[in-house]
Recover the amino acids of this structure.
């Protein structure tokens, strides 16, 4: 209450200063239209803008003429035209540069325009979502983007909240409404919001239309859990808090309708305030490419300078004396000036080393890869009918380099569905699925689920596979009956029955919903409740229990109980709760049962299930009466009411009889553990960042096998102060360093760790560790002076889980890794709370097919299942990276081979910037003769089949280590290009110098020389692309052969009489092709050149393949060079060749390349199961893990038990139910007696929530920075 | 194509999600192209393909190289430098710019007779016909007989575009610097007087050049009429329509002119000057013996250290003497063969070790 009071005053004062801008914010009539979703529009424009900017940048980096040319479109056109014709400089016609440039710009523009258009369309989709707005006294459909501050909106059940609303009234009594905030913070349980009493009466439209209250509140901010404001209405003030607010991104649940007043809309909403800035994303290859292009420009200038000096010397030594035949141009009066002009001429000629078409080709290739992602059938989810979608087309190859994956939990790893999976009833475990032969069945091979048709009230969606449990129920086993009776009585679920037999449960926590639904299907149907009664249909018979007390859940008690009187009048206490707590409160007589149940609990926990222990206790009438008295006193106590109540509860929940345990599966998305295992083997580190509670997050960590029981240690950092956090981190590091396996020197890292030390720590750590860090602690850990320590510790751990983090913190964590690790990061999430991290990471992936699509809109890639991530990275990403690298290598090679010939020719033509080739050849070389084959390779190439990329995740590593295209590879390509250019010039030179044709005429005329060099060049680069192409599809064949054919066709056309007759000055090479190419000498020269250029390449590649084969070479197929290479059926054989390629040895022990062949790995408990041929890799992983689990259990280590109830429940609902506040009047009337007055229940609900936040277990408060 | 893969899909990929509602048209097409399963040939550099290739290249290149080498060696060729830089040379007197016209005679002996058609070339060294400014200094329209270009030559021809207010025909530096030495060959026979060797001056240019690229300006009158209003290039003695007496070898289609206009790629080059046609099968075209070469020395090259040569050569199927190509083929063939052997050894060694490794498994 105190907080509220302060909240009432302070914001008002703040707002006084900001009144001018807040005016429209605060009140009803502001015509302030904010587009609901704009950042992603900004993304698209950003891309287009920056891309063109990039082009401009490149142009700028070029020497002045180039720049002018690059800009030449209309007005400057003429200027440039004249400029190019300055006879002293121009060595090429204007079109040699302009034609490719215009083509390139046109293609880029078209591509960006389409990109933009599609983004816009999907933005519009959100912006045009309809919402009902109260305008002029009637409800009208308006698109989201037209929703203004001050509007009153009607929301219906399961609708998304479109803006930050002040709740005015709802269909539920007392202006209550329930919301789900999974989109916002990842928590799955329902939350209650309540309208302030004065407005909760405004149920009908006419009264709402007259509502003229004024809200004055805090300015837009990113704090999701805080709101303070004041409502001025009818000359009185009402304080507003977060409890009255519905934030954008929430979903209305269990509430038919509600009305809200828009307080923040569009970018001002707390959600959008949390989503961070939109950054333009570029891949590391892009950056490298730009650097290299700059280097090449430097190289270009160097060559220009060398040739210019050569020109000056030549003109001085020879040119002056040659003037009789070749006088200098008028303007040129000295050798020096001639050299200067020659510099620019050479810059123009040689600029083809950096072809403009590079950028457009890269774009085209990425576009192709994006389409392959869109088209991938294996990334199409049939259920949700959503294909994968590459929303940006600029990041594909980065997918092949990812090192860190940041994943959201709810909706991404989990389905947000709780399923009653197993149970243990008086020492017998139910729920395991056995196939016909009695083996535990794998997923997918399950028999038919249990038939619940005997029960008309059963929930059709509930599936259970173990028929024995139903048999036990039908047999009338008393324990089993009592078990389900407990489940149907001990909860805070509300039921609703619209039509007879159509039961709907409104569960506040999904766990509880799952349990009650299970009881319902097994014949114990919770039908209805009043504040004092619970009606249950037990095996078809309606039984009404008198509800005497609900001993509510809280985070310390970790249990809840109900005390009921059954129709026979017997009083019984039913209790369910966390095993750690409950097992200590059992009656000692059940020792044997307890140990069996404990075993079962361990087993369940090992499978990642959330467990609860159930127990009951009979109470006799007198004891109860006395106890109830004490309870009443305690609850009426003025001071320390909570403690008193707790001790009263404590007293009665004792000496209970164990009934059994339940195991609930927080249903993971399909294939999550396998995917995580596979990605881990591919050396990708996965961090889970979730807004959910620590226990939930850890539990999920276990169930998706990120955390395992055989980990050396799981560090949990929960410190509340800087010092605590620092201390905890330091301890964790010390432990890692000091562990017996560690090789390091064990010195704790001082305050400021250099990156060198970071790696040393990383290397020193042996054993598997995991780090779990809490939101509070993370806030401290992310401070500037501690972030490195945190990062170092976290990166040394195998798994990292951050829980209770805000959307902004998610982004900060990603940013931290991005900044300091120089690694490629990928963020994957489904909800609005993941938007910031999706935007921050190098690559953002959105899970589509959910209700909210905000994450998808902000993402770069989207698909509907987490498990598709493995395919996106290991198949598409890997291929993209490979293709892009091969493409770039080849592209630089071919342009150097092409251009450098001019350089060598310069030494023989007086450095006069004479080109070697025909100008048309120069124009067309990059855009026609050599572009398509390399594009086809860049789009279609595959080194290993897609299955192999999944089977050998180590194949992903070259991308992470950036091995396929880096500066070294670049220099190799350049060297190869220069080598080729040398041969390309000097072999024809050697042949032509003194030779004549077979008709005696001169052979070494300039035009024949040009044709010979050009033809050999085209043939050599075609052969080279043929060598580089690893996957010859029909398209590759078509393009490669087609390019050669087109070259000759164009050559003959250009040299034809017809064209010459029309433009004698443009087509001077008339008759040349037919004359030159008829010469055997020319063909001998071309053959020689080709062989000499290609032979060393083949030799080197062959040597590398035989001496140091890459893993991809070894597994590339049945034809593999290394022989035994990648046979799946004999995976053990592969390792020796592959150098660490053994699928089973991955990620465990590094196998040195060429080291002794590893023996088949043995596990502590027996031999590895023999593999049948063609076992899928993920199955291996799964089996391996199972084997380990069994080993561990047998060794006797206790699994970490996790109690589900403790973390998905909120205190206060018991009281709510007992007060009857949330029950409809009709049902209350039915109950027929007055409810116990408890007007302040909602306050107490709120207070309890904040109490629990400060309790160490699982606070509800979200720490915030700044 | 797509059908081939249908069955396969079901086996290894399967639908990712349990089949639920009916698949809609959003479902990606299951075509080989879209699923990146186009049938493809995946060439891999295996020992089985690479090594034979090297050996085959070796085995092909060496004989070709030997063939070329032998052919080239069988070609008779004699080269006579008549620049006259050497003071003892008869042409030394012509170095002085005043001595025009200058005549000199060089004696030489053919050790072996030249069979078949013999070709007479003039060779220039250090002459930059490939200089950019030189190469472009021509107007192909004009040379193709375009009347407007004849009177208004292209700017590229500067500074040899106009002279004395008249357009130059042919314009440009190339034409202006046309080689204008006259070479005559005499066989010093048994008789007291030397026998002139008949030199054919037609058929030395490419057919396309002579018939397509170069044309005289149109007009029915005499060639002189057609070239009226133009002036000769600065360096020329005679106008272009007086290059030869025969009308089909005069003006722009004069073959000496055409040959000169086909600029050389390299600063040292030879151009065909005259043909010496074989007379009969019985007699060698140029029997062994003493000859002398009469030179009308007009063309100064001394100023830029140029050299002038007269070359007599026979030809074969692959043209004139070309030692480079033969040697290069032999060398590359040998290297390829050697490389094949080296790779074979390396591969053999490697395979041995890997095989043992395989066995230990």
């Amino acid at each position: 209450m105190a907080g509220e009071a302060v909240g009432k005053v302070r914001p008002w004062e703040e707002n006084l200063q900001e009144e001018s801008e807040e005016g429209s914010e605060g009140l009803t009539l502001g015509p302030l239209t904010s587009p609901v979703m704009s950042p992603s529009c900004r993304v698209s424009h950003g891309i287009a803008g920056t891309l063109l900017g990039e082009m401009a940048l490149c142009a700028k980096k070029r020497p002045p003429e180039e720049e002018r040319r690059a800009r030449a479109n209309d007005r400057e056109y003429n200027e440039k035209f004249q400029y190019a014709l300055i006879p002293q400089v121009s060595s090429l016609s204007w079109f040699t540069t302009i034609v490719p440039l215009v083509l390139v710009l046109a293609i880029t523009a078209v591509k960006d325009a389409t990109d933009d258009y599609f983004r816009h369309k999907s933005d519009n989709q959100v912006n045009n979502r309809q919402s009902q707005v109260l305008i002029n006294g009637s409800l009208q459909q308006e698109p989201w983007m037209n929703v203004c501050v001050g509007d009153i909106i009607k929301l219906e059940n399961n609708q998304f909240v479109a803006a930050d609303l002040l709740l005015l009234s709802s269909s539920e009594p007392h202006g209550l409404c329930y919301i789900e905030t999974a989109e916002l913070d990842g928590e799955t349980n329902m939350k209650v919001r309540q309208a302030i009493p004065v407005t909760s009466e405004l149920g009908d439209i006419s009264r709402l239309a007259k509502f003229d209250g004024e809200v004055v509140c805090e300015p837009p901010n990113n704090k999701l859990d805080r709101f303070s404001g004041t409502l001025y209405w009818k000359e009185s003030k009402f304080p507003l808090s977060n409890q009255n607010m519905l934030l954008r991104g929430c979903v209305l649940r269990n509430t038919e309708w509600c009305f809200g007043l828009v307080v923040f809309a569009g970018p001002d909403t707390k959600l959008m305030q949390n989503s961070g800035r939109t950054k333009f994303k570029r891949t590391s290859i892009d950056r490298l490419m730009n650097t290299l292009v700059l280097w090449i420009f430097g190289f270009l200038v160097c060559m220009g300078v060398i040739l210019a000096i050569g020109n000056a010397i030549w003109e001085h030594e020879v040119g002056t004396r040659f003037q009789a035949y070749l006088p200098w141009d008028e303007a040129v009066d000295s050798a020096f000036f001639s050299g200067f002009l020659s510099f620019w001429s050479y810059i123009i000629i040689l600029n083809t080393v950096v072809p403009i078409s590079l950028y457009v080709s890269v774009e085209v290739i990425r576009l192709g890869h994006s389409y392959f992602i869109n088209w991938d059938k294996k990334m199409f989810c049939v259920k949700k009918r959503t294909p994968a979608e590459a929303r940006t087309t600029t990041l594909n190859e980065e997918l092949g380099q990812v090192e860190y994956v940041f994943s959201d939990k709810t909706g991404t790893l989990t389905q947000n569905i709780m399923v009653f999976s197993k149970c243990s009833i008086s020492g017998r475990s139910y729920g395991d699925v056995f196939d016909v032969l009695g083996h535990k069945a794998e997923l997918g091979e399950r028999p038919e689920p249990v038939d619940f048709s005997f029960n008309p009230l059963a929930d059709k969606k509930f599936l259970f596979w173990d028929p024995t449990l139903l048999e036990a129920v039908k047999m009338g086993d008393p324990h089993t009956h009592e078990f389900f009776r407990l489940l149907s009585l001990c909860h805070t679920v509300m039921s609703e029955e619209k039509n007879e037999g159509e039961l709907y449960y409104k569960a506040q926590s999904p766990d509880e919903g799952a349990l009650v639904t299970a009881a319902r299907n097994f014949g114990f149907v919770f039908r209805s409740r009043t504040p004092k009664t619970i009606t249950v249909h037990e095996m078809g018979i309606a039984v009404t229990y008198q509800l005497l007390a609900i001993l509510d859940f809280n985070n310390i008690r970790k249990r809840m109980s109900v005390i009921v009187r059954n129709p026979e009048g017997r009083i019984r206490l039913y209790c369910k709760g966390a095993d750690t707590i409950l097992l200590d409160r059992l009656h000692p007589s059940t020792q044997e049962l307890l140990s069996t149940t404990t075993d079962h609990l361990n087993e369940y926990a090992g499978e990642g299930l959330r467990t609860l222990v159930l127990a009951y206790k009979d109470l006799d009438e007198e004891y109860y009466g006395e106890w109830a008295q004490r309870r009443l006193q305690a609850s009426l106590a003025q001071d320390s009411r909570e403690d008193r109540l707790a001790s009263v509860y404590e007293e009665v929940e004792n000496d209970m009889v164990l009934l059994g345990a339940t195991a609930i599966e927080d249903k993971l998305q399909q294939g999550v553990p396998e995917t995580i295992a596979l990605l881990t083997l591919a050396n990708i580190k996965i961090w889970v960042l979730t807004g959910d509670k620590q226990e939930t997050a850890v539990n999920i960590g276990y169930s998706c096998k990120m955390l395992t029981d055989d980990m050396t240690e799981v560090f949990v950092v929960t410190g509340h102060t800087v010092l605590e956090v620092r201390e905890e981190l330091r301890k964790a590091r010390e432990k890692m360093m000091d562990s017996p396996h560690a090789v390091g020197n064990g010195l704790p890292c001082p305050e400021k760790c250099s990156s060198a030390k970071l790696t040393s720590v990383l290397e020193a750590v042996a054993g598997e560790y995991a780090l779990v860090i809490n939101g509070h602690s993370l806030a401290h850990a992310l401070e500037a002076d501690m972030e490195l320590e945190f990062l170092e510790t976290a990166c040394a751990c195998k798994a990292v889980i951050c829980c209770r983090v805000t959307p902004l913190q998610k982004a900060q964590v990603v940013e931290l890794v991005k900044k300091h690790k120089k690694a490629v990061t990928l963020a994957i999430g489904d909800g609005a709370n993941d938007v910031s991290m999706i935007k921050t990471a190098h690559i953002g992936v959105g899970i589509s097919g959910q209700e909210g699509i905000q994450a998808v809109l902000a993402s770069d890639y989207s698909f509907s299942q987490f498990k598709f991530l493995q395919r996106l990275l290991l198949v598409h990403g890997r291929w993209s990276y490979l293709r892009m690298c091969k493409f770039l290598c080849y592209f630089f090679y071919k342009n150097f081979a092409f251009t450098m010939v001019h350089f060598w020719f310069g030494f023989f033509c007086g450095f006069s910037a004479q080109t070697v080739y025909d100008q048309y050849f120069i124009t067309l070389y990059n855009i026609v003769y050599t572009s398509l084959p390399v594009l086809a390779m860049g789009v279609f190439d595959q080194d290993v089949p897609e299955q192999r990329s999944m089977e050998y995740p180590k194949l992903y590593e070259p991308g992470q280590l950036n091995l396929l295209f880096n500066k070294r590879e670049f220099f190799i390509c350049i060297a190869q290009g220069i080598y080729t250019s040398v041969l390309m010039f000097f072999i024809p030179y050697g042949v032509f110098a003194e030779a004549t044709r077979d008709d005696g005429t001169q052979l070494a005329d300039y035009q024949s020389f040009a044709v010979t060099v050009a033809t050999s060049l085209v043939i050599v680069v075609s052969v080279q692309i043929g060598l580089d192409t690893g996957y010859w599809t029909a398209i590759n064949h078509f393009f490669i052969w087609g390019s050669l054919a087109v070259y000759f066709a164009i050559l003959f056309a250009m040299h034809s009489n017809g064209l010459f007759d029309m433009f004698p000055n443009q087509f001077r090479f008339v008759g040349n092709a037919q004359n030159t190419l008829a010469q055997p000498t020319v063909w001998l020269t071309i053959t020689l050149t080709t062989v000499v250029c290609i032979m060393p390449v083949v030799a080197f590649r062959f040597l590398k393949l035989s001496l140091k084969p890459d893993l991809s070479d070894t597994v590339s197929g049945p034809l593999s060079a290394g022989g035994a290479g990648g046979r799946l059926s004999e995976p053990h054989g592969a390792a020796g060749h592959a150098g660490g390629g053994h699928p089973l040895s991955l990620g465990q022990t590094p196998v040195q390349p060429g080291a002794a062949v590893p023996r088949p790995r043995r596990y502590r408990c027996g031999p590895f199961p023999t593999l049948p041929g063609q076992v899928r890799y993920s199955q291996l992983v799964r089996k391996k893990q199972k084997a380990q689990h069994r080993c561990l259990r047998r060794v006797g280590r206790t699994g970490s038990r996790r109690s589900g109830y403790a973390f998905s429940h909120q205190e206060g609902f018991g009281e709510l139910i007992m007060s009857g506040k949330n029950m409809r009047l009709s049902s209350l009337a039915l109950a027929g007696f007055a409810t116990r007055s408890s007007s302040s229940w909602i306050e107490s609900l709120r207070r309890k929530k904040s109490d629990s936040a400060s309790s160490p277990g699982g606070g509800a408060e979200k720490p915030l920075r700044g | 194509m797509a059908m081939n893969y249908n069955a396969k899909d079901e086996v290894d990929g399967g639908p990712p999600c349990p089949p639920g509602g009916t698949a809609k048209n959003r479902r990606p097409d299951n075509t080989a192209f879209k699923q990146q399963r186009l049938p493809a040939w995946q060439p891999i550099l295996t020992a089985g393909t690479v090594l034979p290739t090297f050996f085959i290249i070796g085995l092909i290149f060496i004989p070709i190289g030997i063939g070329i080498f032998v052919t080239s060696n069988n070609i008779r060729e004699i080269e006579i430098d008549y620049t006259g830089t050497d003071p003892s040379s008869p042409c030394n007197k012509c170095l002085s710019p005043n001595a025009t016209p200058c005549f000199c005679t060089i004696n030489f002996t053919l050790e072996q007779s030249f069979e078949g058609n013999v070709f007479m070339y003039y060779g220039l060294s250090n002459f930059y016909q490939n200089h950019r400014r030189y190469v472009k200094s021509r107007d192909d329209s004009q040379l193709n007989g375009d009347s407007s270009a004849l009177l208004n030559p292209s700017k590229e021809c500067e500074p040899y575009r106009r002279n004395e207010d008249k357009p130059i025909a042919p314009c440009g530096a190339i034409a202006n610097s046309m080689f204008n030495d006259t070479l005559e060959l005499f066989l010093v026979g048994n008789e007291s007087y030397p026998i002139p060797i008949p030199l054919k001056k037609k058929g030395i240019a490419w057919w396309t050049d002579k018939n397509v690229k170069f044309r005289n300006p149109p007009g029915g009158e005499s060639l002189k009429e057609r070239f009226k209003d133009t002036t000769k290039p600065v360096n020329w003695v005679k106008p272009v329509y007086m290059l030869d007496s025969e009308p089909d070898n005069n003006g722009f289609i004069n073959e000496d002119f055409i040959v000169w206009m086909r600029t050389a790629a390299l600063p040292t080059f030879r151009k065909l000057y005259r043909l010496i046609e074989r007379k009969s099968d019985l007699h060698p075209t140029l029997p062994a013996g003493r000859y002398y070469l009469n030179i009308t020395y007009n063309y100064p090259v001394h100023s830029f250290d140029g050299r002038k040569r007269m070359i007599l050569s026979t030809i074969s199927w692959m043209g004139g003497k070309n030692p480079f190509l033969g040697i290069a083929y032999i060398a590359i063939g040998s290297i390829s063969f050697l490389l094949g052997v080296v790779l074979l050894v390396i591969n053999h060694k490697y395979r041995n070790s890997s095989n043992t490794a395989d066995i230990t498994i």
